[in-house]
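Hey, I'm writing a tutorial for new members on how sequence and structure tokens pair up, and I'd like a real worked example in the thread rather than a made-up one. If someone can provide the structure for the chain below, I'll link this post from the tutorial.
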Amino acid sequence: MPELPEVQTVADHIKPDLVGKNILGIEPVWKKVLHNFRSKDLTGKNQIRNVSRRAKFIIIELNDFLLAIHLRMTGKLYLLEQGFRPKHTSAVIFLENSKDLIFEDTRKFGRIFLYKDLSEINKMHGPEPLGKDFTYDWLLTNLKKKKRNIKALLLDQSFVSGLGNIYVDESLWESGIHPNSISCAIPKAKISKLHGAIQSILKESIRQLGTTFISFSFLNGRTGNYSNELKIFGRQGKSCPKCASKIKKIRVAGRGTHVCTRCQKTHKPRT
């Protein structure tokens, strides 16, 4: 699933071609793609004021409401000449005097939402890990007051937004925390490392246009470069860059998880 850097990359690259354009309508090629509205709810000329990201949503801001697009597992969003419909097109957004905005999705899990503002999304999501509210003090306080598996907690979008399997594994490895650790038992020094690792890894991945591990692409085929920088994710059986031990793949929080058992210590509450 595209995570924060990949969604940010898509938003950044379609924004210059969308801002100022008028949306004339939307065609749901896949009938379930429109989650909470119908195509007739988007009629007339609706000018695009901005394109941004919140959590894992691409936000297209219009004059009176917004479209929130979640790519889910295999969604792609890009501009294409009018009349062309790729095989796995889920929806087409028609723009005035412009190309069409294509929402392509092989597995058909992606959805488009229509909201008055960001309040509905905000109440379901925690702070942005690159935002001003995600400070070391915030992370320390909120990890210490919860007794949860650290990987499950970081994947929980109501706790912190935008992180997924790739960047949680990379951040926990960088900070020396085993993914089976319990949040309240992690030492302050490790929490400080975790906070820094999350932010530095996300920033570098955005700089490198995200990670293409299986299917992520943007601008109708361009791929991200951060896959070349991954230290542990997808590297099971290979040597840990820190200690040369073999990287293992285990199951944590229902997800395939990559770990170096020598570098990453498990922190549990004292009994």
